[in-house]
Specification:
heterodimer; A: about 190 residues; mainly alpha; Rna Polymerase Sigma Factor, Chain: A; Arc Repressor Mutant, subunit A; 2 domains; about 70% helix; globular; B: about 210 residues; alpha/beta; 4-stranded mixed beta sheet; rod-shaped
């Protein structure tokens, strides 16, 4: 598959726009999913994933063929989502913590979202619950946990995607794992 | 508590695949004896399994089409640049052609002086060159930036650049034929830039291939 993508990128660099269509089809769900998990809502996720592909296309000549395309693409997408998270006004989002109520956010205010610890959750319910718990992590831990266990990048690749030292990746993945261990221990 | 912190550190190193053999042995022996750490280790491994089972999401169906529709049409400049990079020889040829054309253009606009081929029989009056009656001019005649009146005969080709052939008796139709018949060769009149260029280019090729 890597070879297929490499060939396509070469064609895109030569000016073949249609070849980029194949690249998008191949990565669309991965990138969309990554953006969705980072941002937590479908509309923003689609916008950012679209933007990531467009930026990749515009800057395709700055991509070094010897490197892995997916690493480069995830880097663009991750930077876009982190920028978006920084820019948005927290008041309007359900994830926002309510002032004076540590650990509580708007989700916990919604009756339908209320869950009891140890509640029996199965199948899709469980998957959704795990997704929600991951999305509750601070972005810097969330991105690493996602890249490592859901998108299966190596720690070295994660360090390249996020442009942070390997040691920092390790520290953050430890903390992310510990935080999720506490959140998921009762499941 | 101390044993906990140290061994938790080792657990994470294990999960990242960074554990050395002796460290791994140490952790294993510790886990066999410490129930707390065993529980912690189990929870961590379970957490990872759980994370991997998180809900999956697929991109909307029209995602690719939307991206393709929103791709910027490439800037012309970028396209040219890339083309130049890919075809260096054609670029050099094009550049050469442009410079050559420039040379021809400037030579067209620069010389406005009357130029006439050297033949003693030709009479020059101002910017008009006359072939007198009853005279035969040998060889080819070139007149640049001037008019030409042919009353006699020219024994060769005539090239008239940026000028006109003047008929002495324009009213008499039969005479026209007679005067034009005074050229025993090809008559060529060049009075537009394009023709001038063509003439020049032909000239250059002629001189190149006559070596």
């Amino acid at each position: 598959m890597d070879q297929f993508i490499k060939e396509k990128i070469k064609e895109v660099k030569k000016g073949d726009q249609a070849a980029f269509g194949d690249v998008v089809s191949f990565y669309q769900s991965k990138i969309y999913q990554h953006c969705f998990r980072m941002l937590g809502n479908a509309h923003e996720a689609e916008d950012m994933a679209q933007e990531a592909f467009i930026r990749a296309y515009v800057n395709i000549h700055s991509f070094d063929d010897r490197r892995k395309f997916s690493t480069w693409l995830y880097r663009i997408a991750t930077n876009l989502t982190i920028d978006r998270i920084r820019k948005r006004k927290p008041d309007y989002f359900l994830d926002a913590e309510i002032k004076g109520a540590e650990g509580l956010n708007m989700y916990s205010q919604l009756a339908s979202e209320e869950r009891l610890p140890g509640e029996e959750v199965e199948g899709l319910e469980l998957q959704r619950y795990i997704h929600h718990e991951i999305s509750q992590l601070p972005p810097k831990y969330r991105s690493i946990i996602m890249l490592r266990y859901l998108e299966e990048f190596s720690l070295q690749e994660i360090s390249e995607i996020l442009d942070i030292p390997l040691g920092t990746v390790k520290t953050r993945i430890h903390r992310g794992r510990e935080a999720l261990r506490k959140r998921l221990r009762h499941v | 508590m101390d044993c906990n912190r140290e061994s938790i550190e080792l657990m994470h190193k294990y999960l990242d695949g960074d554990l050395t053999k002796p460290e791994e042995c140490g952790l294993r022996t510790h886990l066999e004896t410490c129930a707390d750490c065993q529980h912690h280790f189990h929870e961590l491994k379970r957490t990872i399994t759980l994370i991997k089972s998180a809900e999956h999401f697929s991109a909307p169906e029209d995602f690719t089409q939307k991206v393709m529709k929103n791709l910027p049409t490439e800037k012309k400049r970028v396209t040219y640049k890339r083309w130049f990079k890919v075809h260096p020889i054609l670029t050099a040829a094009a550049l050469f052609f442009i410079l050559m054309m420039g040379g021809i253009f400037s030579s067209w606009s620069q010389d406005t002086q009357l130029v006439v081929s050297k033949q003693d029989e030709l009479i020059i009056e101002g910017d008009t060159v006359i072939v007198p009656e009853g005279v035969t001019v040998p060889g080819d005649v070139l007149v640049k930036n001037g008019n030409l009146i042919i009353n006699g005969t020219i024994d060769g080709n005539v090239t008239l650049v940026n000028g006109e052939l003047i008929e002495e008796n324009p009213l008499e139709g039969e005479n026209l034929m007679a005067s034009a018949g005074g050229v025993n060769g090809e008559f060529e009149s060049v009075d537009r830039v394009f023709e001038w260029m063509w003439y020049k280019v032909k000239d250059i090729f002629k001189s190149v291939f006559s070596f």
